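DM from R.C. (forwarded with permission)

"hey, sorry to bug you on a friday — could you get me a structure for this? deadline for the figure draft is monday and I only need the backbone to look sensible"
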Amino acid sequence: MHLCVGGAPRSPRRYRGKDVVDWLDQMGYYDLSIDDHPQKEKVRTKANHYVTGRDGGREIDLRQFAIEGMKLYGRLKQIGDRTLDFQPDLQQNLDQADAVAESIKQSIDQFIEKNQIQAPIDPIYQPVWHPPEAITTLDYQQANIGTVIWCTGYQSDFRWVELPLFDGKGYPCHERGVCETWGVYFLGLPWLYTWGSGRFSGIARDATYLADYITARKKKTDSTAWNTVNEFLLGS
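My reply, with the result:
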């Protein structure tokens, strides 16, 4: 199997006796609002961490895949008549992914130390494999590659919504899911308001907020409409 590696970060699956999701939830990461995030709006375009929940959840380390026989390359550059051309950035992409995983561990370490939590110590991560050289061209016929699977992730496409409520990149302009266009709301978007907004752990809070907002707006609208009628009747 052959794999082109992009710039997506990775996350540890378990660390110091717990699933990392448990630690992050306890640390309040899923409650972190986009207003409080250091990168603000820019965080909405960040790639998600790669990790798996298969068999109860386990970490994905592409270096280990390489040891087990997977051929790794940098980001795919172009496809020719017989060749695949890659960017010479495999080592850089692996290192960056590891750096993100290690930064998550460090934040957990700091939380454990600050709150004096008793937790087992995990060994320091050591890369188990390094690319011997940057392979930038591959003859896919000689490599016996007969199938290419494009795993480039997903991107929202709102072109079917023909309303003037999007920015120049096709992302809806909203405040916690509320649009300036009357009666239009969004729910379930990554970073709609918090890091948990695009996950089951956070969508209920956003749904409750929108339901309360819609109810309050409807009451206000009904009250305004009634007062307007009264004023018209009184004035006539």
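R.C.: lifesaver. The CA atoms of residues 177 and 187 lie 6 Å apart.
me: no worries. The chain has two domains: 2-139, 159-236.
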